[in-house]
Amino acid sequence: MILSIILMLILIALGVIHFNWVFGGKFGFTESLPTKENGERVLNPRKIDSAIVGIGLTAFGVFYALKSGLIDYNIPEWIMTYGSWIIPILFLLRAIGEFKYVGFFKSVRKTGFGKLDTLFFSPLCLLIGILGLIIQLIN
Q1: Three-state SS string across 93-118, please?
Q2: What is the reported pLDDT for 139?
Q3: Where do the H-state alpha helices sit in the chain?
Q4: What radius of gyration, in Å, describes the C-alpha atoms of the chain?
Q5: What count of other Cβ atoms lies within 10 Å of the Cβ of residue 114?
Q6: Closest CA to 1 of 49, 56, 47, 64
Q7: Distance in angstroms (rounded) separating the CA atoms of residues 128 and 64
Q8: How far apart are CA 128 and CA 30, in angstroms?
């Protein structure tokens, strides 16, 4: 139960950060976008993109609130089963990355994003993925 609550809090906090960007907030926005060595952004997300990611992260947080028992709502068992595998796998794949700008195995490492990704973003994704798998395997 504790691990599910930890994941719920992390995922909802990440969702809130994305919603902050939707409503014009700047906290961490520039630092969270991968760039080429010349500083050019690789991604140029729109507000709708941040909203979609925010909704997804918040939904994942609610999923773990359901897993923990904090929220008692009858969700079909197949959603709980598949979600328990899909969510951690998504975060593990994000931690691995796409081998150029994102993830532990990226080749572009010396940019501002590259350094933050190595220190914080990829380890956080790895942690979320591992905790999710632990929760699934002990239940």
Answers
A1: HHHHCCCCCCCCCCCCCCCHHHHHHH
A2: 80
A3: 2-22, 47-68, 77-96, 112-116, 122-138
A4: 16
A5: 19
A6: 64
A7: 11
A8: 23
Residues paired with residue 41 on neighbouring β-strands, in sequence order = 35
**The tokens of 134 are what?**
């632990």
Q: Which residues contact 91 (CB under 8 A, 6 or more apart)?
A: 125, 126, 128, 129, 132
In the block, residue with structure tokens 């220190």: 119
- pTM higher than 0.90, yes or no? yes
123 HSE (CA, 13 A, CB side)? 6
The set of residues, in sequence order, having a beta carbon less than 8 Å from that of 65 and lying 6+ positions away, is 4, 5, 8, 71
Length of the chain equals 139
pLDDT at 130: 98
Q: What is the pLDDT along the chain (139 residues), one digit of tens a residue?
A: 999 999 999 999 999 999 999 999 999 999 999 999 999 999 999 999 999 999 999 999 999 999 999 999 999 999 999 999 999 999 999 999 999 999 999 999 999 999 999 999 999 999 999 999 999 999 8
